[in-house]
Amino acid sequence: MNRLVVVSNRTADPRKPAAGGLAVALRESLERTGGVWFGWSGKLGETVDREAAEQSDMRVRTTGNVTLATFDLTREDHDTYYLGYSNGVLWPVCHYRLDLAKFDTRFAKGYRRVNQLFARKLLTLLKPDDIIWVHDYHLIPLAAELRAAGCKNRIGFFLHIPMPPPLIMAAIPEHEWLMRSLFAYDLVGFQAQSDVTHFSHYVEAEAGAVRWGPNHLRAFDRTLQVGAYPIGIDVEEFVSLAEAQDGRDMFARMRGEYSRRRLLLGVDRLDYSKGLPQRIHAFRQLLERHPENRDSATLIQIASPSREDVGAYDDLRREMDSLCGAINGDFGELDWMPVRYIHRNVARKRLPGLYRAGRVALVTPLRDGMNLVAKEFIAAQDPADPGMLVLSRFAGAAEQLKEALLVNPYDTQGTAEAIHRALTMPLTERISRHSALLNRVRKQDVHWWSETFLKALAGTEAALPKTS
User: Fold this and answer.
1) Segment 256-268, tens digit of pLDDT
2) Domains and CATH numbers, the chain
3) Burial letters for 383-406: b for 16+ Cβ neighbours within 10 Å, e otherwise?
4) Taking the complete model, does pTM exceed 0.90, yes or no?
5) Residue 266 to residue 279: CA distance in whole angstroms
6) Residues labelled catalytic
């Protein structure tokens, strides 16, 4: 059995409960194959000398049958590769925010330099028959750097964030190099079919790519397989969290404290892609247009800290503080606050109980690769009396979760009407919609995602069309 080598910006111990969704998805395959997970340690080396830093040893440790290999970055590499290019260029552009992108040639050079560093260090760990799975926007050119060094392994790539339309991608000064780099992979996976379409249209328009059947593109003297592989959640693990003591305690506490209210929930990172100000505006319109919801509906909005060393997030935090304060001041009563705004992390083990207490979940990003909160909310519900999901049509999850109430988050009036509909929806309709949603979330869970992608990657050699 071929060993799986996972490469991502950061690693995690897949056996720890708080390891995150990617670790849960990859744990079985890594353990079964005695795999390796390789990435940045999250630490900055003490030396400022780049050559000395490159020669520094990797940290290699085993956890169960999995090897974790990490290395440090210099401050300069972190600031250019991670803050500058990954989060200052690729993140805003892929979320359609060209106004927030910082196109600086130093960032592009640092991004390529660190990907070259990843490649050099990774090569020392590889075996000839390893299958390599590279994750996310931090490492787009990694396969090209590995190929340049003679790597013949099968290499797959998965983009966890959205792929923007061609003209938006073309705003990046290095866009041709980035997209050419993707053709060094054997398989490139996206979250949604719309992302596949955007990528296909880009390479057809900008590189004269030719389609080879429904799943292959030919350009730059390479044939690339592409596909949509929507990531899921571990449904059984999440249900068990809901049934555990912490989950039950949270549910009982919320139901007791808000026995006279209907809870609306928003659980997000504090990020400009999440549409948080628009959501607060929509909730204000709900109270203005449907006053029967006053003293009745309460929005709990959790906005976990995120990238707080980026200036745009300071502006967003101040805006949210102002909007939530204003709505509470204008509509609040001595015994009722319309919005409970929480700017800190909530323990994952408590989230299922919170979700289950919610009558409505508001998942309304302006753009999102997938959004697993939507799927977690569905999994946590009581099938006999489920809450309703209000979901942005611009979340990748919208392609799968058609039975949710889909909204345009820029249309705050329309979103307000959808929230009101969710709050007043008859039980029979809620049960019918939730049943369909839960069946799909169960069928296309996180294990289905990893197995489907890895099976496609393992078969890429045989699937490649002839070039003659």
Assistant:
1) 989 889 999 999 9
2) 4-232+447-463 (3.40.50.2000), 235-443 (3.40.50.2000)
3) eeebbbbbbbebbbbbbbbebbbb
4) yes
5) 9
6) 160, 368
